[in-house]
Every structure is written in structure tokens, then in C-alpha cells.
Amino acid sequence: MNQRRFSLFFSVLLVAGAAHASSERDGLRALRIDAADAPAIDGVLDEGAWQRAPLYDDFHKHQPRDGQPAAGGLRTSVQLVVDDGALVFGIRAWDPAPERRRGLLARRDKVAMEQDFIGIWIDPAGHGRSAQFVRINTLGVVSDGIHRADDDTSDLGPDFPVETAVKILPDGYSMEVRWPLSNLRFPYADGRNWRVMVERSVPHADGALLVTAPFRIDALSHLSFLQEIAGMDATVETVRDRRFVELRPELTVRGARATSPGQRLRGSQAELGLEINARPRADWVFNATINPDFSQVEIDEPLSQGASNVALSLPEKRGFFLESADVLGLPLPAFYSRTINDPEYGLRATWRGAHIDATAMSLRDEPSGLVLRGRPYETLEYAQTRRTVASMARARWHQEGLLLGAFASQRDYHRFGTNDVLGVDAQWRGATDGGVQHQLSGVAMASRTTAGFAEDGVPARVGGESGGYLWGKYLHKSARWWHEAEVEAIAPGFVNDNGFVPQAGIARLTGSMNRILGPQALGSLELYEFETYLIVHEMRTLADSANRQRGGETVERKLRPGVWMAAPLQTGVWVELGFDRQRAGPGGRLHDTRVVNFGVETTPAPWISKIAFEAALGRQLDVDADRVGPGGNVILDLGLRFPLGSPYTRGWSLELDHHVNRAWVQGTLGQPAFSDTAWRWLAMLHFSSRDSLRLLAQNTWAARRDDGVTQLEAWNDRQIHRSLLYRYQWRVGRTVSFGVVDDKLPLADERSRSLTFKLQWEV
């Protein structure tokens, strides 16, 4: 399946839409307290505020087997107190088998369903378009982010300054979570009541997920059905005029050494950066960034000196871009923050009203990134050798079930020209009396570009070139059916250098029909969910006289029937047959590339966080050779977690993640004509929830050999990466890191090594 489709459906099972509770009980009610009465965040619910706060314990079982009764003894209660500075949640979780609790130290944003955790979802605007969420496991490790209803996806980039504490008890645990009001975004006036959902994961109870509202798997998104928080009116009026200012300076010091045949280079640099976040009142937020460090040492992808041109492939962690992700809310081709590689400085303003919101930004980007220009059969890459200015403005209006938006984007290459884009977008949602859900989304963009590149890749001003982009998607969901239809057309002259458009000059149509059969029995194996589906996909070229590309040529065609099922041990399995056809280049042959795709993801033991295997085996297209041969693509991910319990390592834990990927196309001489292999081994020794030592090893090999047919020139490439990083975090925004990186290209006899020290502080 596409792994994307499997992940999307599984996320729908986890958080897909809520129905109103049949019970007439009130939802969660907040108790207003004075700051002097605020409870200490120690995980113990013994203060007077907790004795007075209303208690809510109406939890429902959502996963697995949605709507079935939860295992006995898993009572969960939640209370909420609020002062002028923060929301404070108190949670009590009972467990009849506390010795089976799963919770180990892990990286931030790695709290998943294989762990015991409490999740809190807050929609302070109350309009159901987005929510901020945190998940805290029983050792205080946090995952957090923003969930957008428009595309029903979660972004784990944002890190919220929540303060948490957990107390392990003989019959379960208790937890306190303090969420500062300065970090919640809501309109100044005429806003709806704040809404909330609390969830609890209990892996040993057959992977149970308990939530404060009964969910349905057929709803488009759960956010508009979160329950209102009573008792918040006075707090909102009190804090909406309060000013908040945050200063986040950072110091990065690097020393680097590089060697290559006949050359040795050595250098060092110290850089000071600053982020400023100001909220003069509830509906306005202003952000500024000055010289932010690209390296983002907290992420797992290997980065080394000079590696900034791979920014397009990295998850976004720079706070400047994450602040207003809920307002931006655009499909990927419209704006993609990673196209801004190394900003020297940037300014941004965001305004949120009850029904209208907007954001605008402008940044100066330093050289050394990549500029991508799409073609039907390839993506051209050019080095960004000059400073550019990236600017973007976005506004949207939304009512119940309807959203209308507009945006403007520009990439200014100064004397080498500009890339200008204007666009509009819309989304409509509705439901029939029978509960059938409908969603219709669309985007239209037009571009004009005078910034181009000469044949040698040097920036050059060109005559104005124009192009258009159209995208539409229809989604239909009911209790037993889930259908999608998506159409996209990208004109040959369309360019969006602030977005992500890997192809242009193409039109594609994709559709899927899905039959949700619910729980089934496969012999003695009980399946919690079972689904059959059919995916169809067609991509064709659009005529382009400038590049001598004729229109109507099939680039790719897919017909894929398949099945997906969920089973015990948090297991998901899918199998599909791919009756595919692909073309390697203009005028080439449309090859038969039939494959079998299958995959499995499971958590069979407490010390295994994930086993995920995915494979595509069959006829593979060798694009450079324009031929098909037997081959495949295999991916294996294995995550392990171990507590370390010796007298010297009490409370420590070891986290191991392994990744292996191999793709190949067999030749006619008994060996692969092309192969690409990569493995990554990540080991993290966690001393506490605040500090850890990370070792990352990654090797990649790619090679072309004589295939016995085309006699293409043979080549071989190998890269080796090793890095060691120590990181200590006092709190969100206050960290110190020290890292060592060693990169090698052994076949070219090139090597680079660097030392990095980084200090981040929040005032």
C-alpha cells in the first residue's frame, strides 16, 4: 500500500470522529482558582484544589473493536483547574495489572500506542479546524503537536512548554499536566467555548484506547466533536488582553575538518541566533527569527557540515514555521517550509478571529539549498547559489462545514528574476441524515516566473513563463464504505519555488473504493477490522512545445486490489496486487511492471516498540536503462526498548532503532543491474527524561553493473556516517548539546569531521 494509505487509515481508527455521548452527563468542568492555590506539579493529587475540582470519568473504549466494553478495572478520571497562567489537568488511572504497565524513557515525540500514556487534545478556538495535543507516558516522556481537521493529519513538529509529573501507585498511576495559557491560540472575541478530549492508552489490555467520547470510525475528523469545557469564560476574558513575550537565544559553535585527495581544509565558526515570539493580545502573534541554526541536532537524520542542501527531506522543527501551522493549512504543493533552507532572518505575523484568520511572513534565505523544477519524467535540481527572499501571505474564512482561502507567494532572486504564485482553496463538509459523510476540497494556483537557470546550472533571468495548477479531492465515508477520488493537473510552465512540485506537465487521476467489513474471523484468528479495497491511478503528460513533450502520453498506470486487516498485538497486515505499467521517459515504451505489495506492523512484546516490514516484489523499472527486470524494494524497521536496572544504571533505559532498505533490478548476467542499499542503527541511552546520549550509524551503497543489455557505464557509490550526541534539556526551549560527526566517501577518499556545541535558552 502504500505505507501512506495504511498509516492514514490506521490514524483514522485511532482518532476518527466522535459522536455526541448518549449520556446526558455534563462534560469536563474547570475549577477557577487563584495562583496561590495552584497545585505543585508532582503527580500527587493531594492539594485542596483537587478536592474541590469536579471529576469526570465517563471514558469509552475506542480501540480495538470500537464501541465494545473496556476491560474491567481500567477506570480513569480527569479533573481540571485553571488560574490566570495555565490549565492544570489531574488524571487518575486505575489498573488491575499494574505490573504489566509499559512505559520507558524515549525520545520526544516517540510516545506511541505500545506505551501507557495519557493524551490531552485542546481546541481553544472551538471551531473544530485544529487542535493542540500532548501525550505523556508514565515516565514523563512527551509527544506533542497540532492536528488539522482539513486533511485529518497530525504534525509532531511543534513542542509545547507543558510541565508534567507522574506518580506510580500500587493500583495504577496519577498524573499532573500544566499547560501555559500563553501557548494556546484563540480569538480575542466571539470565539466558541474551548473544547477538550482526554485519551488513555493501555497496551496490555489488548491495545485498548479509552477516550472521553464514544468514537465512530466513519467520521471525517474527530475535532469538531470534542466536548466543551465548562467554567472557562472568566479565564478567557482575563487572559485575552495579557501580553506574552518569549526570547529564545541560541549559540552554536562548530569546528570542522575535511580531507580529499590533495586537499585539507580546517575551520571553525561561532553563530548566535535569536527567536522572538510576542503575543500582545490573544488574537495576534508576532514572530521573528535571526540566524537560526539549521542543524536541528535533536532529529535523527544524519546531518553534517555542508549537508544543508538535504533540507527538503527533513521534518520541520524550526519554531518560526511551526507557530501558525494551523492557520497556514495548505496542501503540500502550495507552501513547504523546508524549501527555505538557511534563513538569515525572518518576520511573521498571525491573526486569529472567530471566523477569519491570516498569516504573513518574509525571510531572507542564504545560499546552498536546492531549487527543484519538475518535468513529467524527472525532477531537475539546481544549486541555490545566491541569496533569495521568500515571502508568503495566507487568509481564510471558515464557517460550519465550509472553508474559503486565498494565498500569495513569491521567491525573489533579485537581479535573476522572481517566481510569483497566486492561489485560492476551498473545502466543504456535509453529512446526510443517515450519517454518510462527504468532503470536497480544491486548490487552484497560477504562477509567473522570470527566474531560471542556464544549461550549466547558473542562475539566469529568463522571459516570463506562466503556468497553472488545479487539484481537487472528494471523500465519501459511511459505516461500511470509504471512497476517495483525486484529480491533479500541473501545467508545464507552473513553478512554485516556495512549495514542493516534483513534477510538472502532467495530469493524474487517482481513485479508491474501500469496503469496511468490521470484525471478522480468519480461522482461529480474530480480526478486529477487515477491509477490502481497489486503487486506480492514471498519470499522463500535457503537451509542452518548449520541451518537445507531446500530450496524452501515459507516464504511470496502476490497478491495485488489496486487503487490510487489524489483529491482536497491535498488528496490521495488508496485501495488494499491482497491475502496473510505467514509462521511463518521453517516447519510451510503456512497460509492464506488475508487482505484489505486502506489509505487516506489529508490537508482539513489551520490549519491542515496533516491527514494520514492507515489500514490493515483481517487475521493476530500471529508469536509466529503460528496461524491466525482476527485482523489488524491501524495508524493515525494528524498534527495541530495554530498562537498565543495575545499581549503577537504575532508572536508565536503552532505545534501539534499526532500519534496512534495499531496492534492486536484476540484470541478465545473474547479478543486479542496479541496487541501492541503506541501513541505519540508532542507539539512545536515556539517563532520565531530560538527558540522553545518542549514537547514530548509517551506511548507504548504490551501484550499477553491466546488465547484459544496455551496456551502461558501471559506477559505485558508498557513504558512511557516524555521529555521537549528548543532549540535556532543563525544559522546553532550554537545552545544551554536544555532538561529534564523521562522514566518509571511501571510494572518493573524502572525509569530513566536525564538533558542534549548541546552547538554547528561553527567557
Proportion of residues in helical segments: under 10%
Strand elements, count: 43
Which outline best applies?
globular
The pLDDT mean sits at 87
Distance between the termini: 46 Å
SS class: mainly beta
Main sheet makeup: 24 strands, antiparallel, barrel
Low-pLDDT residue intervals, each spanning 5 or more residues: 1-25, 296-300, 302-310
The total count of helices amounts to 5
Q: Into which percentage range does the β-strand content fall?
A: over 45%
Please tell me how large the radius of gyration is: 27 Å
Key features of this structure:
763 residues; mainly beta; 8-stranded antiparallel beta sheet; 5 helices; globular; disordered N terminus
Short description:
The chain is mainly beta and 763 residues long.
Written overview of the protein:
This protein has 763 residues and is mainly beta. The chain is built from five helices and 43 strands. 38% of the residues are buried. Mean pLDDT is 87; it is low at 1-25, 296-300 and 302-310.
